[in-house]
Amino acid sequence: MSNYALKLMFKGTAYSGWQVQKNAVGIQSIVQDAVENVFGERLGVSGCSRTDSGVHANEYFCHVKNAPVFDTNKLPLALNTHLPRDISVTAAFEVDDSFHSRYSAKGKEYLYLLWNSKTPNPFHTDTALWYPKYIDCDFADEVARDFVGKHDFSAFMAAHSKIKDTVRDVWYFRVEREGDYVKFVVAADGFLYNMVRIMSGTLLQISNRKIKAPVSSIINSKQRSNAGMTLPAHGLYLNKVFY
User: Fold this and answer.
1) In this structure, what CATH number is given to the domain that contains residue 171?
2) Catalytic (active site) residue 126
3) From CA 62, how far away is CA 101, in angstroms rounded?
4) Are residues 58 and 177 in the same domain?
5) pTM for the full model?
6) What is the residue-wise DSSP string for 56-80?
7) Are residues 77 and 34 in contact, defined by beta-carbon separation less than 8 angstroms?
8) Residues of the chain whose pLDDT is less than 50?
9) Which of 71, 95, 119 represents a domain boundary (last residue)?
């Protein structure tokens, strides 16, 4: 028997997120079905993170333990034969018993993608936020740096969340432009529920002067009402997982 880590990419539009749910289709259950088809038995599949409905992943890891021996070079192709085209296994690795896709992770990088043009892009209806007002990326990049560091991010957590430990260490937060694409890229040792979408919404509103307060004062307030809007899920990507 062997343990495997699987590296995935997925478009989350058609799914309720990663987690298996009773009344909706989660990516986890789709991957688990493919694993069962390949290995011939129902095996547990554990992911590195929960994702919200409509959120995508350029890089996502899950693991399967106590599975029959299988060539890791052939495993991605075998699994992809049983997966829909919006989910892809890009690599497979044999791992030891101590590996856990979630608890072994040291941190994650997220990307929030915006289509910054006066006209919408029909190819990004479900994969980027259309924002027609011009974004000053140089200014936004300066503002983004104020999020960096170890802080209590209570103000950037969904109001109904019950997490008690709200301190996170943000490693970097930068803004990049490529033509009409604007990318908000943020990495940290962990994230609170909706934290990236609220940080991105706050950054967007500060950069367009809809919020006057500096980031430091919003952080220190620890009040969700002082931060900006929660941007829609369809622009968010889990971009990298650090182990």
Assistant:
1) 3.30.70.660
2) no
3) 5
4) no
5) 0.94
6) EEEEEEEEEEEEPP--TTTHHHHHH
7) no
8) none
9) 95
